[in-house]
User: Fold this.
Amino acid sequence: MSFAAFWKRNLGFFKMAIASNVEYRMNYFIDAVAQPSVTAVIEILLWVGIFRTAGSATIGGFGLQDYLAYVLWGAFFARIAASWMYEFRMIEEIDSGSVNGLLVRPMSFYEYYLSQLMGYKFITTGVSFLIPLSVGAAMGWNIHYDRLPMAVLLVFFYLILVHSISFVVSTCAFFLNRIYALTVAKNLALWTLTGELIPLDLMPEPFRSWILILPFPSGVFIPVGYLTGRVGADAVAQGFVSVAVSLILVNALGLFMWKKGLRSYSGTGA
Amino acid sequence: MSIAIETKDLSRVYQSYRKPEGVWNSIKGLWDRQHIEKVALKPTTLSIEPGQIVGLVGANGAGKTTLLKMLSGLIVPSSGEATVLGYKPWERKHEFLKQISILLGQKNQLWWDLAPYDSFSLLARIYDLDLDKARARVNELAKRLQCTHVLETQLRRLSLGERMKMEIIGALLHEPAVLFLDEPTIGLDMIAQESIRDFLADYVRSRGPTVILTSHYMDDIAQLAHKLLLISKGAIVYEGTVENFTRATEDVRTFSFRFAEELPADLALPEGHVLKAGQKDHQLKILPQHLGILMPEIARAGILQDLKMEETDFEDVIRGFLEKESRIL
Assistant:
């Protein structure tokens, strides 16, 4: 298999995801703009409320403005770092037997969905980032815009891990029907572990140290913390390493599950 | 290569579990499930030559789709061996997958949200085809299938017949050496069926791929297949030419007629036929050469108001054949 052929077809999946997503304009704008904006507004109100009730200028060493900048960017980074929609599709594909149409073609299920996920995130991120960029600039919040490319790079690297985890979850559909509850439970855990719910430096020890070793903070806490000055470049480097190691482990598990799953697969529905 | 497809004792067993009726049994199923095994395909040995068109026929659940799925690499056999173009299908090597195509009549394989042109362009990338040549081929196939007008319409907005034509173009775009067609005309109206059948006949004549075709429609098989495999309860019970099969079964006709009055009592007819009492409408499965013996008896039984002789449908032909086979065995 030549690399050119691999690249060509994956670029095709990437473009297909863009074409499919912009086809349904209303859904696209709600998904890219309204959904993360609503999350950000709720979190902003929550933190304003916390600071007013606390009657303190800082919490955990950071002021209200720092928290507002964090939750604003956090909502949009969390939007990138989530793949539940594609995970549901992957599960459904195996559960219903639609995966047959992919299995008989010279490509892999993993790459097919990864490239689509990247295409989808690319087209939504391009538009949705305009919101925190313009709000941040208008409010004059302390945001290190020069760090934005590295933060985005880290979250997209983390996204590959998220996809790999989704791949492992979806392979469970070979053995069990209806495993959507697993996705929901996993997403709830990630909501906390990425730092979307609260900045991870507010977590009590020893949980804080434990969580920071894991790859999940690379989804929200590290890139947003780096952007808003909560963490330094060393945390970003650690994030890349942690995600890279996890990618090897999770993909090894995914490959094992996939091969085992195909052996028991009955090609349902066709 | 002298043999395109070869299997030796290829079999597949599916695992399932029994689900007794009632809520309590559903709850009990959380910790106690009665697993069962179903043999979908018994050990099967066959060989198909390159360029041969094989009709795989059988009732629902007979095992034909299971065989097709194993040969196309979709599922792994429980035991036995198979090679298609020299490859083990379930290893799903890209060199193998580039040379085969499977068309599932009951399943969309193209992308629901895309217009066919976009889907074909994506397929061209997947199969590493030259994009210009692929587009020219799409146009050529669409012209032959008379569906050029729908190439820029989203797949989800097309009729079933149009969608099937698009699926056919998608399946043939990379010019597969082996083509698996699983009920390609299912659910289509007569005109669409005929159009697709003519197209496929023309295509296989001109390009010469090895084809395994499953269908419930006798016309599909009769028009396209050189060889027939009849499969029943997971085993191949007939392997031979379509002509020989047709010769063995074609004489059976359905003879229907109506009397003005109901018959007062059962009436025995020659060749073991019986007309039931208390009904005006009757139907007999007869051989045409018996008509001369039966007709005078029927005419004597009452005043005939209507009569009709027609070919027995394919399911009945298969059933008749299987009954005959079991008598011989």
User: Anything to note?
Assistant: The longest helix of chain A spans residues 233-264. DSSP finds twelve helices and two strands in chain A.
